[in-house]
Specification:
mainly alpha, Growth Hormone, Chain: A, globular
Length: 438
């Protein structure tokens, strides 16, 4: 492990995103078909993970910055999360599922930022340049996408093997069962990861508050975070609504994980090949812009809804969109942050994007789906009446505006000096006295 840190780190990322990818692409469609959940109810279930991203990342970041080895925290969180996922799989109501998803999410959310900080810690070896470290992180993170893909393939195989459940008969949620199994494996494997000790010496116990100083110490950081927030709200239209949308186009429920997996295959190419080539040649600004533009293109195709081959092909736009936006921003935040608060800075990014951005985005897309769905005289939503063209037009326009915003305001990163974090305000030059002026 010491001689080749990328191997254990890649295995960690593979399992981390297999845990998430086991349920995220398909649960919305399962809730719609089996429990006849409304768009708002589906949004509320997905909302649990994003609410947890607001509540827990700073706690997790603070623990691994000061008190607990990162790999120990990762193992404990996933073992407890596996038990919560198994309980969620056996719920027969939207409310019950939502509650256990909340418990699972509180345990899983901190691990997203912590797996990044573990990777950056072990890839930042003596004699390694920033370009080499960014390349290595992109390769390690690519294993996470592969884990997401494999989880979808396994779920498709399992669903086809089981067959559709009899009408009216409850069966456990297969995607949550797979989440529990993957979480158990990662929970055990985490204890074998390279040791990542807490940075106790010289680390302020209130390190997470220092991450907020990046807003005025890094030029353009506040605008950058605002645009990241808006982009994240629109990302939920793909995660939450694309599965029920594809079912209306004739895609069988059992095949949804594999069909949507094409977006992760494209992400695999984006992370493993295109991003390592783009960052050193184009810089972060142009790389980020290309990624953001891919999203409105996909949503505009979704809004058209035909031909089917074009809709399915547009799923691959996710590859450039995710790799060029989310991974680039993680690298950006790591590069502009002083060493002793990098875990907390990653948690700040998680808070703004996976937390507030995705939370409001989930609420927005659920509400918008119900708004463009017909109702009967009693006000009940009518199935298969959603105007998907209007639903996906909104995120297409908003992400296009964000692309313009990034182009006009984003600056290439410059690291903040370590001693700058001890300042309460930016350094100023005192005025000359009368004697000095003479």
């Amino acid at each position: 492990m010491k001689s080749s840190p990328r191997i254990p780190l890649a295995a960690m990322m593979f399992l981390e995103y297999a845990v998430w990818g086991a349920w995220m692409p398909i649960l919305g469609a399962t809730l719609t078909t089996r429990l006849h959940a409304s768009g708002t109810q589906v949004g509320n279930v997905y909302l649990m993970i994003w609410a947890a991203c607001i509540l827990t990342p700073f706690i997790g970041g603070q623990l691994v910055d000061r008190y607990m080895p990162s790999q120990i925290f990762l193992g404990i969180a996933h073992l407890l999360g596996a038990a919560a996922a198994w309980m969620a799989a056996n719920q027969s109501s939207v409310t019950g599922l939502m509650l256990w998803m909340g418990v699972w999410s509180l345990l899983f959310a901190p691990t997203l930022g912590i797996t990044n900080s573990i990777s950056f810690h072990h890839l930042n070896r003596p004699g390694t340049s920033e370009v080499e470290r960014d390349r290595d992180f992109s390769i390690v993170r690519t294993a996470g996408t592969l884990g997401w893909i494999v989880a979808g393939l396994v779920l498709t195989w399992y669903l086809l093997r089981k067959g559709a459940p009899p009408p009216g008969q409850f069966v456990p949620f297969e995607e949550m069962q797979l989440t529990a199994v993957c979480g158990l494996i990662l929970g055990l494997y985490a204890f074998a990861l390279p040791h990542t000790p807490p940075a106790k010496e010289g680390t302020d116990p209130w390190a997470f508050t220092k991450a907020f100083k990046l807003f005025y110490l890094v030029p353009g950081f506040a605008v950058f975070m605002l645009l990241q927030f808006i982009v994240s709200t629109e990302f939920q239209f793909f995660y939450v609504l694309s599965a029920p949308y594809l079912e209306t186009l004739g895609i069988r429920h059992e095949w949804l994980p594999t069909v949507k997996g094409s977006s992760q295959w494209a992400e695999l190419i984006g992370l493993g090949l295109l991003l390592p080539l783009a960052l050193p040649r184009l810089g972060m600004r142009k790389t980020l812009l290309l990624g953001v533009i891919a999203w409105p293109l996909r949503y505009f195709v979704f809004s058209l809804g035909k031909p089917l081959w074009l809709v399915l092909f547009s799923l691959t736009f996710h590859g450039i969109g995710y790799a060029f936006v989310f991974i680039t921003t993680q690298i950006y935040v790591d590069r502009v942050s002083p060493k002793d608060i990098r875990a907390s800075a990653q948690s700040l990014l998680t808070l703004v994007t996976l937390g507030f951005g995705n939370l409001f985005g989930t609420m927005f897309c659920g509400w918008l789906k119900d708004h463009y769905t017909a109702r009967d005289a009693a006000g009940n939503l009518l199935s298969n009446t959603t105007d998907w063209s209007m639903v996906f037009l909104w995120p297409g326009v908003l992400t296009l505006l964000c692309a313009v915003g990034f182009w006009l305001t984003f600056h290439e990163p410059e690291p903040v000096p370590e001693d700058a974090m001890t300042l309460t305000t930016p350094a100023t030059v005192p005025p000359l006295t009368a004697e000095e002026a003479q």
